[in-house]
Amino acid sequence: MSASAVPAPPEAFNFAEHLLGVNVGRAAKAAFIDDVGALTYGSLDERARRLAAALRDSGVKREERVLILMQDCNDWPVTFLGAMLAGVVPVAVNTLMTADDCAYMLEHSRAQAAFVSGALKPVLKAALTKSDHEVHKVIVSRPAQPLEFGEAEFEAFLDRHAPLVRPAPTRADDPAFWLYSSGSTGRPKGTVHSHANPYWTTELYGKAILGLREDDVCLSGAKLFFAYGLGNALTFPLAVGATVLLMADRPTPDAVFKRWTGGVGGVKPSVFYGAPTGFAGMLASPNMPARDEVALRLVSSAGEALPAEIGERFKRHFGLDIVDGIGSTEMLHIFISNRPDRVRYGTTGWPVPGYEIELRGEEGGPVPDGEPGDLYIHGPSAAMMYWGNRAKTRETFQGHWTKSGDKYIRNSDGSLTYAGRTDDMLKVSGVYVSPFEVEATIVQHPAVLEAAVIGAPDADGLTKTKAFVVLKPGEHADEAELKTFVKDRLAPYKYPRAIEFVAELPKTATGKIQRFRLRELERSRA
Predict the structure, then answer these.
(1) What is d(CA 118, CA 146) in angstroms, rounded to the nearest whole number?
(2) How far apart are CA 240 and CA 94, in angstroms?
(3) CA separation for the pair 404, 393 (Å, rounded)
(4) Cα separation of 31 and 424, whole Å?
(5) 255 sits in which H/E element
């Protein structure tokens, strides 16, 4: 399905109203089930409209921002959709961030109100103390402690207002919400998305590629504040009238397994969205459930490239492929993907219809198949800008094209293989080496849980590959063994010249390996 085959949203368009509108006949059906209880589609509609009215009456104006620092729970979609109904712009932020980062985001977004989970209020309180920006209203969801002066309890905030009947007269190209791009270095970038953007990702990926259904129960390891999690657990399932399981706690293997086997809400998910790091942890867990204990029909992965070995092991156990794809905060969701009925492990799959892909060389021209090139995407869900960052906006959003910062290789069958981040690629003996290719080979060793590869200077100052390796609990492997293992599977110049065994790898909140932290470590030792 191409973008031209999908009817564009009308010029006058409010995405929250659109989602609620497609579910008017499902008032009694559960839309969300969290650790406390269920929220029906009818209640979601009413509560989102009450929140929209409450924001208006509290003085928050159209296109002003409100911060959402909330754990995944039923109040999260109420807040997100309610803000958009009012024409207010929700800014979804990472629940694991520091008070310093939170203070930065408050100032950068100029948020007029903040919605916060009771458990996260200490972070917000510390951020407000550090920040020069004044937030006029703090609304606390499920407070853990008595409210303080100036705070409002979430239920009381809603109950004082009748539901908003008519949404703000927004347009498809109006700002709808922000997500902060995690980035590997520097301050997070406020990525502005329009009301039309989640419509396009829902139509082109959630429906056309994943084939989500009304009878699905969806569970996402990625949280709602991530672009990946937002599609997984809100926009995609609500667009087809499905049910979503939400969990406030971390998606540890045991927490996921508990939900897979119906331990929360009495229902088993049919769709699970995870990330490679999470799948590796599950496969290493002694508590992994048997195939007949789960009801999964579809499993998705994104966040970083999926090693073939992980996908193959998962399929052997559950009889299901993991459908790997790549998306980004800037494009909102996935634009290259395998298919539920067509998986080629070791690749990210094929361009999602509706998106064009180009691989460009150092001079900007196309690269031939088999050679790494910089990945550019042309598609209808690209963000509008980075707020207050014109230089980065111009660098990333180049006319119709979005520069991803990734390197990819096109294969003869049109599939694409991840070759690392642009700033992670290594040039060894004059030849480019993909860290991911070496990592994906190392993790095929039965004793290895995870690996990260960087370039490190040797005694002559020449760049050589170095691997940091995490072994599975109770397993053993030495440096010589792993070097031989890689040499037997890759070109000789690609094997790691040094291997360091570590207890864990540095990662972002999304589970992506932070190779720049390892590079910093090496520089500090020099």
Answers:
(1) 10
(2) 27
(3) 12
(4) 41
(5) helix 253-260
Token digits of residue 30: 């559960």
CB-based contacts of 39, cutoff 8 Å, min separation 6: 30, 31, 32, 33, 47, 74, 77, 78
**What residue spans of 336-418 are helical by DSSP H?**
390-396
**pLDDT tens track for 2-61:** 666 899 999 999 999 999 999 999 999 999 999 999 999 999 999 999 999 999 999 999
Strands (E), 25-88: 30-33, 38-40, 65-69
Give the pLDDT confidence of 503-515 residue by residue, as tens digits: 999 987 777 788 8
428 vs 119: CA distance, rounded Å: 48
CA distances from 420 to 44, 215, 350 (A): 41, 37, 17
Q: Three-state SS for 141? A: strand
Cα–Cα distance between 173 and 191 in angstroms, integer?
14
37: tokens are 């209880």
d(CA 293, CA 483): 39
Q: How much is the pTM? A: 0.86
> Could you report the per-residue pLDDT of 420-435, keeping only the tens digit for each?
777 777 767 656 688 8
CA distance 52 to 87: 8
